[in-house]
Design brief:
Elements: H1 3-9, H2 11-51, H3 87-91, H4 106-125, H5 129-151, H6 156-171, H7 178-203, H8 210-223, H9 228-250, H10 261-283
Length: 284
């Protein structure tokens, strides 16, 4: 009996393990969400300095692991026992232990979301590699969504590995045949690429970023070209509803761009769990 068979015999243990791992991964995703855009900005600044023939400034090491996490208000390093996912935030009542500055509720929200997505994947696919793969997909979509909301960026550091992972997994037929995955990647990218250029030719403005093309291509690589209409429809409907609501309720300027990545990611999550049912219902 392997580990997956043992977990299948005790479903509650399997779901509990997924939830705990999801909380821990959600804690790491908070680091990725906060640091990855800053790392990219540093890299771009250094490249620009090199192109101008200027010396690249010396900087302290800054990556996903160094330096240690610290309070953004007072700079006090966060101790290990203060960094337990969700528990520490509740124990500290959402405040820094040193200076009592408020800690954003987004941190525990991302952690809980990471756990919820992991449990959903574990419940849907059961003990096995497909559940692990889908959990990884959902975690990356979560990180991309929050980064896009913050910065209107969908980093290639996340979208391109996600695309390749979908193609590699489906080369073993994990979710769809490789041919469907390949044309899903091509179709996803080209669909939004064509929309981008059509909008630009008509209006003279850019309607979306290249990161959106890559994200839809990645979703197509995971789910196959057959699911692209579902993803596009769901993301467009939700994006339109949210955009109109923001304009009407908050008086948002129509010229202020609204990130499309979270809607694509949300549509991808819904399609993972309900895509085939939606297609069957529509065809029926």
């Amino acid at each position: 009996m392997n580990a997956f068979e043992a977990l299948a015999a005790v479903p509650l243990l399997w779901l509990s393990a997924a939830g705990v791992v999801g909380l821990c991964v959600g804690s790491f995703l908070n680091v990725v969400i906060h640091r990855l855009p800053k790392m990219l900005e540093r890299g771009w600044a250094d490249e620009c300095a090199e192109m101008r023939g200027e010396p690249v400034p010396l900087r302290t090491t800054y990556n996903l692991f160094t330096p240690r996490s610290a309070c953004p208000a007072c700079g006090t390093p966060i101790k290990a026992h203060q960094n337990i996912p969700l528990v520490s935030w509740l124990a500290l009542r959402g405040k820094c232990a040193q200076c009592a500055a408020p800690i954003s509720a987004r941190y525990p929200i991302v952690e809980v979301a990471g756990a919820a997505l992991a449990v959903a994947a574990a419940w849907k696919f059961g003990p096995g590699y497909p559940a692990l793969a889908v959990a990884g997909l959902l975690w990356v979509l979560l990180a991309l969504s929050v980064i896009d909301i913050d910065t209107q960026l969908l980093p290639d550091n996340l979208t391109l590995p996600l695309l390749w992972a979908g193609l590699i997994l489906n080369s073993y037929g994990m979710f769809v045949p490789l041919g469907d995955a390949l044309w899903g990647a091509v179709g996803g990218y080209m669909t939004l690429w064509l929309v981008y250029w059509a909008f630009r030719l008509v209006t003279g403005k850019e309607g979306m970023g290249y990161g959106d093309f890559k994200l839809l291509g990645a979703l197509g690589a995971w789910m196959g070209w057959q699911m692209l209409p579902v993803i596009i429809l769901l993301s467009s409907v939700v994006g339109a509803v949210v955009g109109i609501t923001l304009i009407v309720a908050r008086g948002r300027d129509r010229n202020i761009p609204i990130p499309f990545g979270p809607y694509l990611a949300g549509a991808g999550v819904l399609t993972v769990f309900f895509g085939k049912a939606l297609v069957t219902m529509y065809l029926g």
